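User: I'll paste a sequence; please echo it back and then give the predicted structure.

Assistant: Echoing your sequence first, then the prediction.
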Amino acid sequence: MDYLDQVRIVRHADWAAFEAWRSGAAARLLLFTTRAPRSYLAHVFERGDVLLFGRETSGVPEKGHAAADARLRIPMREGLRSLNVAVAAAMAVGEAIRQTGSHTIGDS
């Protein structure tokens, strides 16, 4: 990717470090899961929200579910399992940007 010099990537040593950062930033954790009853299209996103997606094979560990401020799903036709995680993330980020008016990924 030829624009990595234009973004700031923050890596946390572990879940506890991430949660400490999130607490200090007062950032809401929005978990995307097939187990959620609420559509992401019905959710009101805010600048600074953190969107969490799990592995396609195993989802998000239970501590991620427990920490989430909201659990959201992407509506799927009955009988279908889920979307590729990259596609799901693109849909969710697009909706969050549309709602917040940020118009750029990485704004907070």
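The first strand starts at residue 29 and ends at 32. Helices lie at 15-25, 62-67, 85-100.
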